[in-house]
UniProtKB/TrEMBL annotation:
PROSITE patterns: TIR. Keywords: Plant defense, Repeat. Gene3D superfamilies: Helical domain of apoptotic protease-activating factors (1.10.8.430), P-loop containing nucleotide triphosphate hydrolases (3.40.50.300), Ribonuclease Inhibitor (3.80.10.10), Toll/interleukin-1 receptor homology (TIR) domain (3.40.50.10140), Winged helix-like DNA-binding domain superfamily/Winged helix DNA-binding domain (1.10.10.10). Residues 17-183 form the TIR domain. It holds the Pfam family WHD_DRP. This is TIR domain-containing protein. InterPro entries: Apaf_helical, Disease_R_plants, LRR_dom_sf, NB-ARC, P-loop_NTPase, TIR_dom, Toll_tir_struct_dom_sf, WH-like_DNA-bd_sf. It comes from the Eukaryota.
Length: 1053
């Protein structure tokens, strides 16, 4: 959505600005604070100008130095003790204050570096001495008053202190955070106006600009980017008629989980309206009062762009008495009912105007460029009723955007109205018809998507769900005719208007499926669309510096219209310095990686460019992604543990007293780097909205991983070669490393018993991974000789088999459905992660209690019994970070068995499955370092228990699932409780009311309630979350479906 800023309130065109920040400083700070700050800003992609001595020529500011001040959207002043001794610094200060109107039009941030704010404002101490020295010399007396006035004005601005009491690192972080807040968001650059001149005139007439009567509002509703461009053009048209203005863009996104709060937007509104905000607003109530008090007499223009909740309107627009006579408020929203609710609840007059009616779509959060005509063509083919064919095909090579277009169509409002029944399945090259049917069933009947029925039974269920309905089924990435024929049999004829949308790389699939003709062949992007996509990926909503545009266009053009190549190259460019030299260096290398020819193998060369740019230590981690099936959603925790098992992540030896980071933490950073470089895609995030839960890799990148791994001259990653035996089941991957004589094997559920014969002779096995599901013969048929070797070499094991775990001396990760009934920890000194679907019991003897499992990080699920309590009391798991427990009345007193939890000083995540068993949580001492607690199947939870959880000082995430409460009204804490809680999730609890005292959960930013139909009231703090307060009618799952519930709980760890 479009945006505006205080920087263009003086009618300065956006294209005028060249830099985000101008940095003014005294020379001696250049290689200290200034240099550190400069690089911190650049790393945040904040374009910063830092001058040099060569620019300070002559008697007056001129040339590039003067231009930089004039064309910067914000200025930072490093006010040290020697700053006023330099007439250049003082001249810069005067010009900065002049261009910013003393900080009113453009933000000015003073950094008081070992000086007092009052010394600057009143010219005391060193500042007084400097002014006296200038006056004594007499050379610049004609500037003296201007210098003093500028110092006085800048000294009135609350900035950032940086002195001996504040560590540099903390100071820099605070400054960068402050700059990010003060730097106004840029408006959307409109390359191609919509051409809706008559509609703009009509909307302007509705606003009655010439009337200075009471304030009123105009609500513009519609979908997609068109409404953003429209309101941006309207804003530019009417802005000169108002004293001050603010354009708050992307409100829906900014108040979402990964955005900010309404208080932040209130501060931005005041700041953009020219009102100085000296301290944090603190609450939306206070912010509302401040807006009304400060702006109640001013004629203002306020645009609230992309509003999705009435709470946002109440906090930002209030009533008509918030702003002065003649003010106008323009609200854009995708949901007309938001305007209706606001009118009915507040009694305000809101004129409504619609510029679109379902012509746009809701797509995944990505830059979608150049698909408007393609979208229209596909939609029209789907709407044709007079054609006997019921299949529409999108055809094109990999990376052209077939899936993106299909998703845009699938999620569009127009298609939702046309087809009440919709389903999506990704087929892929190595497809499984059973998995395709499961995916379709997941969309059509969520309660059965994990059905363990046979392939034929699943097919019949899908067919039954679609029969007699007007449906749309999307089959994404169909590779051959065989796949189409095996899936087509579950799709009824289109007697009721049912349609099928197929995406494929092979035009023959479109012919075999008897698709409507002409098949829609997705074209390459033209030069302008390529540049538009490249620009969005590199600069987001900022403008490209004019000097970089020609070479940027050349780089985009060299990708020859392939969106995937454009995005990948843009991801590489975005991480480089924004200078002509750096971009020319990239441009010079691009010819050596030819792309976008007819042969898709040449496309891999541009992808290889990004791969080659990876640090050597990360290359094997990336190539290892080739072992996973195409389009597979990969659990990040498993991926990192596999990297560790293969030896790609080695522990760091620092030689310092502070403990080095764990390999798991290093793996998280590796993954983050791969995501940042657009080599890996985030599929799902964790409940905190930050960490990555599952990821995916594009099939072209997967091809690159396989081809690079299997090159004869591959000297990287110890030559881990990937092969895919076709006679072991639906999917198998063998990874061999000749250098270390090791191998790893990944197998699907329907594995054949001959898998053992594929292990190379004299090769030690590091990884054995059998896909999820009951596989009673995973480890059957092993010879005694092979088993003896296996227990010494195996580091990672994932299986459904029950086995003697304690014999595996070097095992680091074990994921099994059935663990040993009595597990002895004596031989498991290397084990780091133990995950059992249905719990393990520990056996304890005198020798066992003495053993320490120093490396164990994850234990889930284990039975909370006296044996486990004894092990905890004796410090057997000193470094445990994640723990999942089954608490059952058959195992004795829960209070006694959980009493030892406080011994786990490193525990971060705790899952308790309580088996409908009452637990006195208020009498249990929880570890103080816990950041997440997940409780399920508990009985009679009460307010005292909640108060206990509220006293855990570092708790950030609390999940309460499938339990019962003792009280209808649950108190969530007293003032100061839950001091760091950010996420609160409740699922299937029969509770009517949640209350808390003022000051409880002060940092809460997300609350979600799944299937809590009796809940009528939540806390005030939760109510203030706006769109981050969610009430979800979850999937239709029986409460006692333990298989799903166990899996969900384990995924919390």
């Amino acid at each position: 959505m479009a945006a505006s800023s205080s920087s263009d309130l003086d009618s300065t065109p956006l294209s005028y600005f060249k830099y985000d920040v101008f940095l003014s400083f005294r020379g001696y700070t250049r290689f200290g604070l200034t240099d550190t700050l400069y690089h911190a800003l650049v790393n945040k992609r904040i374009d910063t100008f830092r001058d040099s001595e060569e620019l300070r020529i002559g008697e007056e500011l001129e040339g590039s130095l003067l231009e930089a001040i004039q064309r910067s959207r914000m200025s930072i002043l490093i006010l040290c003790d020697e700053y006023p001794t330099s007439r250049w610094c003082l001249d810069e200060l005067v010009k900065i204050m002049e261009c910013s109107d003393n900080g009113r039009k453009r933000p000015v941030l003073p950094i008081y570096f070992n000086v007092a704010k009052s010394d600057v404002q009143y010219q005391n101490n060193e500042y007084g001495k400097a002014m006296a020295a200038h006056e004594e010399k007499g050379r610049y007396n004609h500037k003296l008053e201007a210098w003093k006035s500028a110092l006085c004005e800048v000294g009135k601005i609350y900035g950032q202190r940086c002195d001996q009491k504040t560590p540099w690192g903390m100071a820099i972080d605070n400054i960068v955070e402050e700059v990010t807040k003060r730097l106004p968001p840029l408006p959307l650059h409109i390359d191609h106006p919509l051409g809706l001149d008559s509609e703009l005139v009509e909307a302007k007439s509705l606003l009655e600009i010439d009337s200075h009567g009471t304030c009123f509002m105009l609500g513009i509703h519609g979908d997609g980017d068109d409404i953003s461009k429209f309101v941006a053009e309207l804003y530019n048209m009417i802005r000169p008629h108002f004293v001050t203005a603010s354009f708050l863009s992307n409100i829906r996104e900014k108040t979402s989980e990964s955005g900010g709060s309404l208080e932040d937007l209130q501060e931005t509104l005041l700041s953009e309206m020219g009102e100085e905000v000296k301290s944090k607003i603190g609450s939306t109530f206070k912010g509302s009062s401040e807006i009304k008090r400060r702006l109640g007499l001013k004629r203002v223009l306020l645009v609230l762009d992309d509003v999705d909740s009435i709470q946002s309107l109440k906090s930002l627009a209030g009533g008509i008495d918030w702003f002065g006579p003649g003010s106008r408020i323009i609200i854009t929203t995708r949901y007309e009912d938001v305007l209706d609710d606001y009118i009915s609840n507040n009694g305000v007059e809101v004129k409504k105007y619609c510029i679109t009616e379902g012509s746009s779509s809701t797509v995944k959060k990505e830059n979608v460029v150049g698909l408007e005509k393609d979208f229209e063509i596909v939609i029209n083919q789907l709407k044709e009723d007079d054609s006997p064919e019921n299949v529409v095909s999108i055809v094109g090579m990999g990376g052209l955007g077939k899936t993106t277009l299909a998703r845009k169509v699938y999620n569009s409002d127009e298609v939702k109205k046309l087809f009440p029944c919709r389903a999506w399945a990704t087929v892929s090259k190595e497809y499984s018809a059973k998995e395709v049917f499961k995916s379709l069933l997941k969309c059509l009947k969520p309660s059965q998507y994990e059905d363990s029925s046979s392939e034929e039974e699943l097919k019949q269920k899908v067919s039954k769900c679609l029969k007699g309905k007007k449906y749309l089924v999307v089959l994404d990435d169909v590779w051959d005719a065989k796949a189409w024929r095996s899936i087509k049999t579950c799709l009824p004829e289109n007697n009721n208007g049912g349609m099928i949308l197929v995406t494929t790389r092979n035009d023959q699939v479109a012919y075999v499926s008897e698709s409507k003709e002409p098949h829609h062949n997705l074209p390459f992007m033209d030069k302008e669309k390529s540049w538009e996509l490249f620009h969005k990926e590199v600069f987001c909503r900022k403008s490209c510096p004019p000097e970089l545009e020609p070479i940027g266009r050349s780089i985009a053009e060299s990708c020859k219209g392939l969106p995937l190549a454009i995005k990948t190259t843009a991801g590489l460019v975005a991480k480089r310095e924004r200078s002509e030299d750096a971009w020319e260096e990239i441009m010079d290398l691009l010819p050596y990686w030819s792309i976008a020819e007819e042969d898709s193998s040449e496309v891999l060369e541009i992808l290889k460019f990004s791969y080659d740019d990876l640090p050597n230590k990360m290359k094997p981690c990336f190539l290892y992604l080739g072992v996973f099936p195409e389009d597979d959603e990969i659990f990040v925790r498993d991926l990192i543990r596999l990297w560790m098992a293969e030896g790609f992540i080695e522990p760091i030896q620092t030689g310092r007293s502070k403990a080095p980071p764990q390999p798991e933490d290093i793996g998280e950073q590796y993954l983050k780097e791969l995501v940042d470089r657009n080599l890996v895609q985030v599929a799902k995030r964790r409940s905190d909205g930050k960490g990555v839960k599952t990821c995916q890799i594009h099939d072209l990148f997967r091809e690159l991983c396989i081809s690079e791994s299997n090159k004869p001259d591959n000297n990287n990653n110890n030559a881990h070669k990937l092969s895919f035996p076709s006679n072991l089941g639906s999917y198998a991957c063998l990874v061999t490393c000749n250098q270390s004589c090791t191998c790893s094997l990944f197998l699907d559920n329907d594995v054949k018993s001959e898998w053992l014969h594929h292990i190379p002779k004299d090769c030690r096995v590091k990884v054995l991974s059998f896909a999820d599901g009951p596989t009673p013969n995973d480890l059957s048929g092993l010879t005694d000789e092979f088993f003896k070797v296996l227990i010494k070499s195996l580091r990672f094991l994932k299986t459904g088999e029950s086995f003697e775990l304690s014999k595996f001396q070097n095992l680091e990760t074990c994921h099994t459905e059935f663990g040993e009934k009595e597990l002895s920890i004596g031989g498991l000194k290397q084990l780091r992660h133990l995950r059992s679907e249905f719990g393990v019991n520990f056996s304890v003897d005198d020798e066992g209690v003495k053993v320490k499992m120093q490396n164990l990080q994850t234990l889930s699920l284990a039975y909370a019994d006296s044996q486990l309590g004894s092990l905890l009391n004796n410090g057997c798991f000193p470094n445990l970070r994640k723990l999942g427990l089954i608490v059952h009345e058959d195992h004795g007193s829960a209070e006694e068995n959980l009493r030892s939890l406080h011994c786990l000083s490193n525990l971060r995540k705790l899952v308790l499955m309580c088996e409908r068993f009452w637990i006195p949580f208020d009498r249990i001492a929880f570890p103080s370092n816990l950041i997440q607690i997940s409780l399920s199947h508990f009985k009679d939870l009460n307010s005292m228990h909640m108060n206990t959880f509220g006293q855990i000082p570092r708790l950030q995430i609390l999940k309460l699932k499938y339990g019962s409460c003792e009280e209808e009204t649950l108190n969530c804490g007293t003032a100061g409780s839950f001091p760091r809680l950010q996420v609160f999730i409740m699922e299937r609890l029969g509770i009517k009311c949640l209350t808390s005292e003022e000051g409880a959960m002060p940092r809460l930013r997300r609350a979600v309630f799944y299937n809590c139909p009796e809940l009528r009231e939540v806390t005030k703090q939760m109510c203030s979350l706006g769109s981050n307060l969610e009430f979800v009618e979850h999937r239709d799952v029986e409460v006692d479906d333990l298989v799903i519930q166990f899996s969900e709980l384990l995924n919390d760890l």
